[in-house]
Every structure is written in structure tokens, then in C-alpha cells.
Amino acid sequence: MSDDKKSTDAPDTGHVWDGNLRELTNQPPRWWLTTFYLSGLFLVVYFILYPSIPLFNGWTKGVLGWTQMKRLNETMEEIEKIRAPYENKLKGLPAAAILADDELSNYTVASAKVLFGDRCAPCHGAGGKGNPGYPVLADDDWLYGGNIDSIKQSIANGRRGMMPGYGAMLNDQQTSDLAQHIIALSKGSEFAAGKELFVAQGCVGCHGMDGKGMQMMGAANLTDAIWRFTPGTEESVKYTINHGVNAPGAKETRNAEMPGFQQQLSETDIKKLAVYVHKLGGGQ
Length: 284
Fold this sequence. Notes:
Layout: E1 12-17, E2 21-24, H1 30-49, E3 54-55, E4 58-59, H2 68-91, H3 95-100, H4 102-119, H5 121-124, H6 148-157, H7 172-186, H8 192-200, H9 204-207, H10 234-243, H11 267-281
Antiparallel strand pairs: 1-2, 3-4
Helix pairs in contact: 4-11, 6-11, 7-8, 7-10
């Protein structure tokens, strides 16, 4: 405060800056002091009630005996009580019956999200959107069938389809012609030279004359423009033709194997995942 304002009776510290600025010792406002003292009182009460002060061999426990782990366990018990009626129903029902019950299937989908995130999302992506080399689960394209029992079987036992490589049986021109026919199939047309090879080399045995595949063998539908490994470029298709998929003894073959979870998950968890995946892709 400047010296020309000395009419105030407020005491000061005797310190003066810049020639005319004095440091006063006014008391803080009453509301501030009240809040300060109440904060101190709250702190004392908190220290008494809850674990607070670290010691050499532990910490003060608090008269309430509260801990985060105790609260977590209590919360989990509350959740389990809510879930119990649904979980008990799930154990005695086949996956198809769960899917047919709207209330139960909605619960199952909500319950299976964590399971899917832990077990399936690393390969198939969050929400089943897929990753390079791993099928998309959120579309209606199914290698082994999209009915609930087929999906459950895939989860429980895994899948490992096989396509031989044709690199030793075809020359470069033939491989290119066959690749162009496969790409043409995905666009709803054909490539004559490649179509002849498609029949002659036995591709029809797995993929069918129309190229729509066979779910019982896990043979891909070549007409739906859904590509398992990379977008349907000629080079990518030629690589698959030359080296195959899971071809025995072929070092450069495409690897495409899904592990089975029968030994890792309970029957109920497998049913939950089957319902969840069925809902993702619309099922069959």
C-alpha cells in the first residue's frame, strides 16, 4: 500500500518496496478461515475412519476397516447376484436356444464383449472388423458356415483349411490367366483362358463351378469380392495360387489357422462367444 494511504489503521510488517509500497498484515476473510479449519477437521476425521498414514511396517487401518480390495469384492458379489439367474439359464441351454431368447441373447452379447476382447479381438479386430490375414466377423461372409452351431464348432475346435500351391504346375502366363479369372469372378464376370484352367486344375473341386466355394471344406467364395489376405490385386492372387494356404511342406505358403478354445474356455463361455459372433455378422 502506498504511503499516501496511511489513513488506514491496519498493522504492517514494516517492509516497504519501491519507496511507497507497505506490506500489511490484514487478517484473511472469515469465510476463508472457516473453510480452512473445516478442511483440517475433515482431514483428521478421514485419517481416523480410513487407511491413510504409511508406517514402517504397514499403514493405519482406519476404524471402518475399508480397503479398495474389500470394496471391489463387495461390488463383484453384487454383480454376480444380478448375473446369477442368467448364468444359470445359460448352462442348461444350447447356443441355438440362447439365440432364440431375446432377453437372454442380449445379456449374452453384453457379457461376451470382454471375452471377445481378450480372446478374439487380437486377431479379428475390435468389433470383428478383421485384420490382414484374419477374417472379418462383422460381415455375412462365412468360410465354414454362419449358423450358430458351425460358429460354436469353429470356436471350440478351431479351423485349419488347406489349399495346395500350384506354382510347380503352372507357368507364369497360366498363373496370370487364372488370377485374372478369379478377380473377374469377384466382379461378376469371367476370363475365358483362366476359366479353362480353373476347371482343368481342379479348382472347381473346392470352389465349385460357379466359384461360390464350399463351406463344409472352408473353401472361400470367390465371387463376393471379400479378400482374406490382401485386396484382390493380381500379384496377391498369384501368390496364393503359387504357394497355397497351409500347404504342407511349403515354406512360403499363406498361414491361416484358428486355434481351438475348448481347453481354455468353459462350455458356457464358448456358447457366449458363438452368440456374440453370430450377432456381429448377422449369422445364417
